[in-house]
Design goal:
By secondary structure, the protein is of the alpha+beta class. It is 43% helix and 8% strand. The protein is built from 11 helices and 4 strands; from the N terminus they run H-H-E-H-E-H-H-H-H-H-H-H-E-E-H. It starts with a helix and ends in a 25-residue tail after the last helix.
Length: 289
C-alpha cells in the first residue's frame, strides 16, 4: 500500500505534472497567442451508437461532486452521452499539506462548509455530510481546528478502490447513484455498513468485489494512479471535473457551461431514458429540453 509520503511526493512532482496540458496548450491572455487554437465544434452524428464521451474525474469525499451528481445522472439518462467515470483520491489524501492552517486562507474551510448546504437547498438536494467522515481530519471547532489529516486513511482508500472497481466493471454511474446518495443524503449514520448491498444494487457483485479489492489493492491503485495522471493532463487539479475532448470543466457550478459545450457538439436526446434514473433536477440549464 502506498504511504502518505509516497502520495505527497507524487503530488508535489505532479502539481504541474506536464510541460503540456490542455489548459497550457490553450492558455490565452490576449497578449501571447495560445499554442493551440480552441477546438472547433465537431460535426458528429450523435446517437446511442455514437454518443459524446467525457471523463468524469471524481472524489467520493467531495460534497461538490455529490451536489452535481443528479445533474450528471440526468444527463446520462436522457441524452446520448457516455460517462468515463475516473475516481481519484481526495486532495486531503493526495496533498494533505493543502490543509495546512498556515497556508490555507483563514476563511476557506468554514466558507465551504456553509456553501455546500446552501447549494443543496438551492437545487433541492437532500444533504448531510457523511457519518462517519471518509477522511479522518481535525475540523472542529472551526476557530481552533488544526485541519490536520491523519497519516493513514484506510476507509478513504478502500472506498476509492471500490469506486475504481466500478470503473473497471463499467458501472460507474450505477455505483455513484447507490453509494454517493447513501453517503450524502442523510439516510444513514453508518454508510460503510451498507457498501456491499449498494454494490449489489449497482450490479457489481458486492461481496466478491469487496473481497477482491481487499486481496488485490495494487490492482486498483494502478487504476487510481492512471486516473490521477489523466486528471493532471486536463490542466486542473480539482473535482468534480468533467473533461470533454480534453477540456476541463471544474466544479458543480460549471455544469451549465459543460452542457452547453455538449450541445455545441451535437448533443441529442435518447429515444428512451437510460438507467440509473433520477427525478428531473431543479435549475437545469435554461437551454435544456
Amino acid at each position: 500500500m502506498k504511504t502518505q509520503k509516497d502520495l505527497s511526493t507524487h503530488d508535489a512532482k505532479s502539481a504541474s505534472p506536464h510541460n503540456t496540458n490542455w489548459i497550457r496548450e490553450h492558455y490565452d491572455d490576449d497578449v501571447h497567442p495560445p499554442k493551440k487554437e480552441w477546438p472547433a465544434a465537431q460535426a458528429a452524428n450523435v446517437s446511442s451508437n455514437n454518443p459524446l464521451g467525457f471523463d468524469l474525474f471524481w472524489s467520493m469525499r467531495s460534497p461538490y461532486c455529490y451536489l452535481v451528481l443528479d445533474r450528471i445522472l440526468w444527463l446520462h439518462s436522457n441524452f446520448n452521452v457516455k460517462i468515463n467515470f475516473r475516481p481519484i483520491l481526495p486532495i486531503a489524501v493526495r496533498t494533505p499539506e493543502f490543509f495546512d492552517r498556515d497556508k490555507l486562507p483563514w476563511y476557506r474551510w468554514e466558507y465551504d462548509m456553509v456553501d455546500q448546504h446552501r447549494i443543496a437547498k438551492f437545487h433541492g438536494i437532500p444533504f448531510r455530510r457523511p457519518n462517519p467522515e471518509p477522511v479522518e481530519q481535525d475540523t472542529y471547532p472551526p476557530a481552533t481546528a488544526s485541519l490536520a489529516i491523519a497519516k493513514d486513511q484506510p476507509l478513504m482508500w478502500h472506498l476509492t478502490r471500490l469506486a475504481a472497481a466500478s470503473q473497471e466493471q463499467k458501472v460507474g454511474a450505477e455505483f455513484l447513484n447507490q453509494v454517493s446518495h447513501l453517503m450524502w443524503d442523510g439516510s444513514t449514520n453508518n454508510w460503510p455498513k451498507h457498501l456491499v448491498e449498494c454494490m449489489d444494487r449497482a450490479g457489481m457483485g458486492g461481496a466478491a468485489t469487496d473481497a477482491d479489492v481487499k486481496a488485490n489493492p495494487a490492482k486498483y491503485d494502478a487504476i487510481i494512479d492512471a486516473n490521477q495522471s489523466a486528471h493532471h493532463a486536463t490542466g486542473h487539479g480539482g473535482v468534480p471535473n468533467m473533461a470533454f475532448r480534453g477540456e476541463p470543466f471544474f466544479g458543480q457550478d460549471r455544469f451549465d457551461l459543460f452542457f452547453y459545450r455538449l450541445v455545441e457538439n451535437g448533443l441529442t436526446q435518447r429515444s428512451e431514458r437510460f438507467p440509473p434514473l433520477v427525478p428531473r433536477p431543479r435549475n437545469l440549464p435554461r437551454f435544456a429540453p
